[in-house]
Specification:
heterodimer, A: about 325 residues, globular, B: about 525 residues, alpha+beta, Beta Polymerase, domain 2, Cytochrome-c3 Hydrogenase, chain B, five-stranded mixed β-sheet, three-stranded antiparallel β-sheet, 19 helices
Chain lengths: ~325, ~525
């Protein structure tokens, strides 16, 4: 009986974990938009606008290109499911992740990779030129972000001696915040996150210039509920990356039941503030920088990879072994 | 200019209709045009092409006539070459002066005349699908149900073959809210090999619409040819009328017309600078540009009654002149905005990322700019010191001692810098002009109603104004009832559009929006 109870609790907690992430993701998007509007001296749309947009798109008719195959319809679902998969390994406000065991970080990287694979295929589906251009650019960028993302996480795994993201967050509490490899890994992940979120200087999420699009280019043929799903998974992915970054900068340790209801609220507030601050930071960066020339993207991403390698080297020097 | 006159007289059948210090009108046989034009273009400094007009004068017994207007910058002399008696074809001049490419193709479409020897005789204004005998600018064509005979046909583009070469069609409907134009990129991966632009989706037949309209109605239409150069179009039109009526304007009118033209330049340039930021996703610069532009347009609305300054310039005068108190207020506000501009413009000029995108992007070579008759900031950024305000003495520009702002690299950055410097100059001019306006207080409006009986019918006259995008030329001919017989609008955008596709090859596809925005051309007044 006890075992069943434990499994049930775990299941419920897992569902709660996902629900929280799903509920908050559009809010973060709204907040980032609002922050950008602040820098642009505008009022900007309401912070709740992303929810309304999603609701609107869910109700709209879906148009499918006559050239599209089953991949076109499957992609939004796969992208959403894979993003949820990635969400399962990200430690939440309480420092707890539903899936925590060996190889979490690879699960995270692989889930994002799966999304990318299907998106780039779907970009070709509509037989439009912008989708194809978006796909080819996405692969070009992905070629450089994926290794950097994994390498950054692997450095953290070496520092904390665990490959579970939950374990990392917990162990990082005991690592000095100015531990050089940790800072370097953070730089790597920060830069990669910008690329993964499709933000300036790599891509422009607000652009209406179809010739410059990367992520938006692949979605150009989508309408209605499918577009809603894709946008929603993008928002979730953005939240996951920000949570991951905040957990590295300033981890919330695993809180136990003993902290009570207030403890839970406090942890939630703390995590919320951390994510909001980081979101504002990215919004600021996005307002201050311009989109780079596409062929200068490797410079940006090479810097992040180099930073990861430096982290590894410095860790080796400091520890004398890895 | 006497040398030219002597040269012209060796041709038989030449008739010098008018020849004074400023203006020459010479009629000739159309077969002599290529030689004479080639001779003119050899002169130093090279004359500038202003406009090319084809006119249906069959009811005057002249058959079709062709007017080609050249301006000789050192003498401020304008020469109109008139070829009368064109029946159904005329010799193409495009190979001698490539700037005439579009005008001649347009004449082929709208008049059904053939430009013999034109290197690219595809249709231009009329997209494939119009019936063969549809030539709306012929006088015997009655407008009405022409849309019924249109059957949409495929656009014609050159083909290109090779491994890895793709065609990327873009538009005419774009992802953003912009005007329609179809662009066909020939690419290998991201680098562009060739670009074809198909415009004229917003061809509204304005030149046909203007025929038979009174001068007042004409002004309303001309001011609405496009949304951004209302003063320039209106002013060029009024200048043409005033030339036909041969009237002198009071100094106050000239002064306030100059102020209006500069106000238009300032708000356009600042808006265009902001738009260039949007081309690279620089939200902060874009926001600042939009805000300054909005403030300037609100100023326009408050003191001149219209955000685009429409309705202020009228033939023979100016509708209302602000008093000294208002002038002071305008001046204060403008100086505030000029300071604001100086506050935010370093944000852009000292931005590494922006520089990196703009420098060496979309280079327009000096030779191309000259050959294609490019005007405005686009030409000046390519080292062509050609600013109508400096070249031709009109309005109060001689007093302001305008100097062309010239940059030499011809890239996006150069076009930005020309705009930035011209904005500063314009603020300075506005300050000088407004101070003059306060000292030389006059009446509160100048509207002349007595010139209508002085208008000369059946004679062509041009008006020419430096708009924010370049020189706008309006050519006007009236009939004996004082109605418009033919009005040709050669906007700056019309002159500059052919140059845009030349600047793109060698750049990558995502740079095109930035290049396009650095020209910031108008579709509406190009397509008309």
């Amino acid at each position: 009986m006890d075992e069943l109870y434990a499994v049930l609790t775990r299941l419920l907690m897992g569902l709660g974990h996902l629900a929280l992430i799903l509920v908050v993701a559009p809010l973060l998007q709204g907040f980032i938009k609002k922050s950008k509007a602040f820098w642009q001296m505008r009022q900007g749309p309401s912070i709740l606008q992303p929810y309304r947009d999603l609701r609107k798109m869910m109700k709209k008719e879906e148009l499918i290109s006559e050239h599209a195959s089953w991949i076109f319809l499957l992609t939004p679902r796969v992208a959403f499911a894979a993003t949820l998969m990635a969400a399962l390994v990200i430690p939440n406000a309480w420092g707890w992740a539903p899936l925590s065991g060996w190889g979490d970080l690879f699960l995270f990287g692989a889930s994002l990779g799966l999304v990318r694979l299907f998106l780039t295929l779907a970009g070709l589906e509509g037989a439009g030129t912008f989708g194809g251009m978006g796909s080819s650019r996405e692969l070009f960028v992905g070629l450089m972000t994926e290794p950097a993302l994994l390498l950054g996480l692997i450095v953290l795994a070496f520092i904390t001696e665990t490959t579970s993201l939950q374990g990392m967050a917990a162990s990082l509490l005991n690592v000095s915040p100015i531990f050089i490899p940790r800072i370097l890994a953070l730089i790597t992940l920060g830069m990669v996150s910008v690329a993964e979120m499709g933000r300036i200087p790599m891509d422009n999420p607000d652009t209406h210039l179809e010739l410059t699009m990367i992520h938006e280019g692949m979605l150009l043929e989508y309408t209605g509920p499918s577009l809603a799903l894709l946008n929603f998974s993008e928002q979730v992915k953005q939240l996951l990356l920000l949570i991951l970054l905040t957990q590295i900068i300033w981890p919330s340790g695993l809180i136990t039941g003993g902290d009570g209801f207030l403890g839970i609220l406090w942890a939630l507030g703390f995590a919320g503030v951390k994510v909001a601050v980081l979101g504002f930071f990215f919004a600021t960066a996005e307002s201050l920088f311009v989109k780079r020339r596409l062929f200068r993207a490797p410079h940006f991403l090479a810097t992040s990879t180099a930073s990861a390698i430096l982290a590894l080297v410095s860790l080796w020097i400091i520890r004398g072994q890895i | 200019m006497l040398g030219l006159r002597d040269y012209l007289q060796i041709y038989t059948g030449i008739e010098i209709i008018k020849w004074d210090n400023q203006e020459g009108i010479v009629a000739m046989d159309s077969q002599d045009l290529p030689d004479i034009l080639a001779y003119c273009l050899e002169m130093k400094p090279r004359p500038i092409w202003l406009t090319h007009v084809v006119n249906d004068e069959r009811q005057l017994g002249n058959d079709f006539c062709l007017y080609l207007i050249l301006h000789f910058p050192d003498k401020d002399f304008t020469l109109t070459l008139v070829a009368k008696g064109i029946k159904d074809e005329f010799p193409s001049l495009s190979l001698i002066l490539p700037a005439l490419n579009w005008s001649e193709r347009e004449a082929q479409d709208l008049f059904g005349l053939r430009a013999v020897g034109h290197p690219d005789p595809r249709t231009l204004v009329l997209h494939p699908g119009w019936p063969k005998n549809f030539h709306p600018l012929r006088k015997d064509y009655k407008t009405g149900k022409e849309y019924k005979s249109f059957k949409r046909g495929p656009l014609v583009f050159p083909e290109m073959h090779g491994e890895g070469i793709f065609q990327v069609p873009v538009g005419p409907i774009h992802a953003g809210i912009i005007e329609p134009g179809h662009f066909r990129f020939y690419v290998i991966g991201e680098p562009v090999l060739h670009l074809e632009a198909q415009l004229f989706y917003t061809h509204k037949g304005i030149e046909k619409l203007l025929e038979g309209k009174s001068l007042e109605e004409g002004l309303l239409i001309i001011e609405r040819v496009c949304g951004v150069c209302a003063v320039s179009h209106g002013l060029a039109y009024c200048e043409a009328i005033e030339k036909l009526a041969n009237i002198e304007l009071p100094r106050q009118v000239l002064l306030w017309r100059t102020i209006l033209a500069e106000l238009e330049r300032v708000y356009n340039h600042i808006g265009d600078i902001g738009n260039m930021c949007a081309g690279v996703g620089f939200a902060l610069g874009n926001a600042n540009g939009s805000q300054s532009k909005e403030n300037l347009q609100r100023l326009n609305l408050e003191f001149f009654g219209h955000r685009f300054l429409r309705g202020m310039v009228v033939p023979g005068g100016i509708k209302s002149v602000p008093g000294p108190k208002d002038s002071q207020e305008i001046l204060n506000r403008l100086m505030e905005l000029a300071n604001d501009f100086e506050d935010w413009i370093p944000l852009l000029l000292e931005h590494d990322g922006f520089r990196q995108r703009a420098v060496t992007t979309g280079v327009l070579k000096t030779e191309s700019a000259i050959d294609l008759g490019v005007t405005g900031p686009a030409a000046r950024a390519s080292g062509v010191a050609y600013d109508w305000r400096e070249l031709h003495s009109h309005l109060l520009y001689p007093e302001l001692m305008v100097k062309s702002v010239v940059e030499h690299n011809g890239d996006v950055w150069a076009r930005l810098m020309v705009r930035v410097k011209e904005t500063r100059e314009s603020f300075r001019f506005l300050e000088t002009l407004l101070r003059k306006g306060m000292q030389e207080a006059g009446r509160s409006s100048y509207i002349m109603n007595t010139f209508s009986n002085k208008l000369i019918p059946w004679q062509g006259a041009w008006g020419c104004v430096e708009s924010p995008r370049g020189t706008d030329v309006i050519w006007l001919m009236l009939d004996d009832k004082g109605k418009i017989y033919r009005c040709r609008i050669r906007s700056a955008s019309y002159a500059n559009w052919p140059a845009v596709p030349l600047t793109v090859p060698g750049n990558i596809v995502p740079d095109f929006p930035l290049i396009n925005k650095s020209f910031e051309l108008c579709y509406s007044c190009c397509d008309r």
